[in-house]
Amino acid sequence: LCDSTERWTRDVVRDFAAQGTPPALVQIGNEIDHGMLGDAGRLTGDESGSWNHFATLLTRASRGVHTAGVDSVRVLVHVATGGDSSACRWFFDHLLAQQVPFDAIGVSYYPLWHGGLPALRGNLTMLARRYRRPVYVVETAYPWTLRWFDDERNIMGDAQALLPGLEASPEGQATFLRAVESAL
Questions:
Q1: Nearest 5°: phi and psi at 35?
Q2: Distance CA 73, CA 65 (A)
Q3: Cα separation, 57 vs 15, whole angstroms
Q4: d(CA 80, CA 77)
Q5: Residue 53: helix, strand or coil by DSSP?
Q6: pLDDT tens, 72-91?
């Protein structure tokens, strides 16, 4: 699995470069604070065995990015907990202890699950200062409506998804995105 992870990552970066669209930043995994690749890369708390295997997978993915022949490409690690400084600190401290190479940090931020904008701002500040790497909000959303338009459940269709003073509207979305940008 480690060999396949490295090879697949390298090949994807090479394929992008070959078609004339070399990536500048490659995210190795999506919201990986609980691991990646199912049970094979699942994190189980502080258990050293799961961290060792997870770190090996990430290190091999990072190596795949850097051996693809694209000089300027950087590696980003993405976690789900954009408003939770203690969870992010725990995760990235473990990554550093395992000597996983990465160049940038990405977080998801959804107010419904991650708290208000002050929590986001505090976490982004902590991450940038503590780990001395660029920090990105790579995933976010804010509702433009609380109504349902089909038979699927609208996960943002609850007033709890709203921040104080920001309505569910296109204008509310725009104000929210400017606030996230300001936090960055």
A1: 110, -165
A2: 7
A3: 21
A4: 10
A5: helix
A6: 999 999 999 999 999 999 99
